[in-house]
Design brief:
There is one protein chain. The chain is an all-alpha fold. The chain has a single domain, classed as Up-down Bundle (Rhopdopsin 7-helix transmembrane proteins). It is 74% helix and 3% strand. The chain has 12 helices and 3 strands. The chain has a 3-stranded mixed sheet. Helix 2 runs antiparallel to helix 11 and helix 4 packs antiparallel against helix 6. It is globular, with a radius of gyration of 21 Å.
Length: 309
């Protein structure tokens, strides 16, 4: 940290300053966090235990579950702690670390979602070559590539943030550290930071989205050529869970970062952040569990074995 920087910590103002409401919010978000951990760990357990789920699609789903746990754990525990504290402080170093982790996982998850779309494309359009084109080694390579892209993107955006000078005020109008809020507190120019975000953000985000759209265009084209209605229904049913996750993920992120923000919209800015940082990691395992008979069957078998012991 630069010695010219006068601020050693930031104050996260959070979702509310009302003590009674903070207790209620603590209970609500604690339950959400526990559901996130339980849901994603249940998915991981089911995929690991059931041999029928040792397929590329569920391998990628297990990677998504790991990222969801990391995504939620980077922000929620600190937010829960601050609900119970009068002074809601976070050190500058911890703030930057939070930005780095959240950005890495967020971008990595976005790229992984495009990989999952490609997986559905291969399964529907090239079913005979599916296990060759999406074997375990390829899945692992694609996952590592997604994390590498997230890491590099986060590194490129976090380094310029660390070089900024913060000399006061130190009040962050958010429940976690996000670059747009920190830029407002900087005593030095943030022009370079905005340039980096506006160039790298659309490049990675639109790149992943275009890959996802390209996969679904091919999928829809292939499904429409299926003559039987039942065949079309089965083909589309394998994509509905992933498509729901895509809509939630990209919808909230684009709403948050692609619209012009002003001081009057600070409260509204936190709503999409709550959705994609806190609710989405909880919803993903629920969406996949409800839509996948294989996952439900595996979870049921696990519960039966546990209760039968």
């Amino acid at each position: 940290m630069d010695n010219q920087t006068g601020v050693t910590e930031f104050i996260l103002l959070g979702l509310s300053s009302d003590p009674k409401l903070q207790i209620l919010l603590f209970v609500v978000f604690l339950l959400i966090y526990l559901m996130t951990l339980f849901g994603n760990l249940a998915i991981l357990t089911a995929i690991r235990v059931d041999p029928h789920l040792h397929t590329p699609m569920y391998t990628l789903l297990s990677y998504l579950a790991v990222l969801d746990v990391a995504f939620s754990s980077a922000t929620v525990p600190k937010m829960l702690e601050n609900f119970l504290r009068e002074r809601k402080a976070i050190s500058v170093q911890s703030c930057f670390a939070q930005v780095f982790i959240v950005t890495t996982v967020c971008v990595g998850e976005g790229v992984l979602i495009s990989v999952m779309a490609y997986d559905r494309y291969v399964a529907i359009c090239h079913p005979l070559h599916y296990m060759v084109m999406m074997n375990k080694r390829i899945c692992c390579t694609l996952m590592c590539g997604a994390l590498l892209i997230g890491f590099l993107f986060s590194l490129i955006n976090t380094i310029p943030l660390i070089t900024l000078h913060f000399c006061g005020p130190n009040l962050v109008h958010h429940f976690c550290c996000e670059p747009p809020q920190l830029f407002k507190l900087s005593c030095s120019s943030t022009f370079a930071n905005h340039v980096v975000i506006l160039t790298t953000g659309p490049l990675v985000g639109m790149g992943a989205l275009l890959l996802t759209l390209a996969s679904y265009i091919r999928i829809i084209s292939a499904v429409l050529r299926i003559k039987s209605t039942e065949g079309k229904r089965k083909a589309f049913s394998t994509c509905t869970s992933h498509l729901t996750v895509v809509i939630i993920c990209y919808g909230t992120v684009f709403f948050r970062y692609l619209r012009n923000t002003t001081e009057d919209f600070q409260d509204q800015e936190m709503l999409p952040s709550v959705v994609y940082l806190i609710l989405t990691p909880m919803l993903n395992p629920i969406i996949y569990s409800f839509r996948s008979q294989e996952v439900k069957r595996a979870l049921f078998n696990i519960v039966v074995k546990k209760t039968g012991q």
